[in-house]
Design a protein that fits this description.
Elements (H helix, E strand, L loop, with lengths): L2 E3 L14 E4 L4 E3 L8 E6 L5 H4 L2 H10 L3 E7 L10 H11 L6 E5 L4 H6 L3 E2 L1 E6 L4 E4 L16 H10 L12 E4 L3 H4 L1
Parallel strand pairs: 4-5, 5-6
Antiparallel strand pairs: 1-10, 2-3, 2-6, 4-8, 7-10, 8-9
Amino acid sequence: MSKISSEEKLEIGDQAPEFELENYEGQKVELSDLDNYDGVLVVFMCNHCPYVKAQTEELRKLDEEFNSIAIVGINPNAETHPMDTVEKMGGFIEDEGLNSPHFYYLADPDQEIAEKYGARCTPDPFLLDYRHTVFYHGRLNDKTGPNDEVENRDVKDAIQKMLKRKEPPEDQEPSQGCSIKWKEEEE
């Protein structure tokens, strides 16, 4: 397991790339399907990553605190890591308690969406406002290990600012986690 930081490909204020991906049950979800939400938190994540597992509690809290925000987990490793397959995604969501009506877990088998967003690690969160422009790209919080205490809930703070129509946070610390298992790296 290597630790890598996210990078800036999309700038704050950029229009987020549209996507049409399937969940683990074969249902298609498009970004435009989420227009009725006040924002969308897109998190590139996967089943096996210990950094993702350390953040599932934070994702559950955000889902409970902000039901006007859709949370979309996008799995770029669905075809590149044996623990991240589409068949195992439903069990992961169930086990981690992320099976709410506002949480969508989608597979990105071609890794096209991860590439368009500039995602590099899991988890790698992007907060989009109601127009689907990038408001925040950085860590969920300052927790990096399963036993670490959370002092700063970066995404929560960003969501609160976004909902109050304030400016994006000036300090956006990059996320850190496992590297995405890119197809070209596999060969």
